[in-house]
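Hi all, posting the design record for the shared folder.

TITLE: backbone redesign
STEP: 1 of 1
STRUCTURE INPUT:
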C-alpha cells in the first residue's frame, strides 16, 4: 500500500494534483484544504489513501494524517463515497465536522453539497464514538474543549448577572464562527453581542 508520495507538483486543480515521483506521474484526488497548500512546481509530501475498485485504482492525497483519518471515517459510513468525503473536507474543517458529529448538528452537515438529511443523520450515528476517539490523538478534533470553553464562559457571565439562556445562543453562534476562542475572548464577544 502507498502510505505517502513525495515529489513535484506537475499539474494542480482544486480537486486533483499530479505528483511526479522519480519519473512517474501519480494522479491524486485532493480536497480544497490540501489543494490550497500546494503550488505548481513545488516539492510536496502527501499522505495517500488508495481505493481499489473493479473498474479503477484511485489515489486520494492529504496534507496531514488527521485529514486522511477523517476521510477514512467519512467513507466508512454507508452512502458516503470518496467524492462526497472530499466535498465535505473541502467545505468544512476536521474540527467543524467532528464538532457537528459530536453535537448532533445535522443542519451543518446538510450544508455540504450532496449530503441530505438521512446521510447527515447516518454520519452522526455512525461516527459519534469514532470522532471522540479520533479527538484523543488530535485534541482540536474533539468537541470536548469547545464545550468546556462554552460552559466556563456561561458560568462567568452568570456571576456577572447575565442569564444563561440569554448568553447560550450567542455563545453557540460565536463558537461556530470561531471554534478556537478562549474563555476570555468568548466572554468579551458575548458581552459585545448582548
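Okay, here is what came back for every position:
SEQUENCE:
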Amino acid at each position: 500500500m502507498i502510505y505517502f508520495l513525495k515529489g513535484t507538483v506537475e499539474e494542480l486543480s482544486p480537486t486533483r494534483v499530479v505528483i511526479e515521483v522519480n519519473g512517474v506521474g501519480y494522479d491524486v484526488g485532493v480536497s480544497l484544504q490540501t489543494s490550497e497548500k500546494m503550488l505548481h512546481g513545488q516539492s510536496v509530501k502527501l499522505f495517500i489513501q488508495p481505493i481499489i475498485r473493479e473498474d479503477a485504482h484511485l489515489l486520494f492525497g492529504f496534507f496531514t494524517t488527521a485529514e486522511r483519518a477523517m476521510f477514512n471515517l467519512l467513507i466508512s459510513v454507508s452512502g458516503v463515497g470518496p467524492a462526497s468525503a472530499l466535498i465535505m473536507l473541502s467545505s468544512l474543517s476536521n474540527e467543524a465536522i467532528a464538532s457537528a458529529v459530536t453535537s448532533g448538528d445535522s443542519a451543518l452537515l446538510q450544508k455540504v453539497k450532496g449530503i441530505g438529511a438521512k446521510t447527515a443523520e447516518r454520519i452522526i450515528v455512525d461516527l459519534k464514538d469514532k470522532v471522540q476517539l479520533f479527538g484523543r490523538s488530535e485534541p482540536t478534533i474533539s468537541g470536548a474543549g469547545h464545550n468546556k470553553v462554552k460552559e466556563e464562559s456561561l458560568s462567568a457571565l452568570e456571576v456577572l448577572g447575565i442569564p444563561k439562556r440569554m448568553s447560550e445562543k450567542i455563545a453557540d453562534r460565536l463558537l461556530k464562527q470561531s471554534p478556537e476562542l478562549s474563555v476570555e475572548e468568548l466572554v468579551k464577544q458575548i458581552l459585545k453581542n448582548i
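COMMENT: The CA atoms of residues 83 and 121 lie 18 Å apart.
Let me know if anyone wants the other runs.
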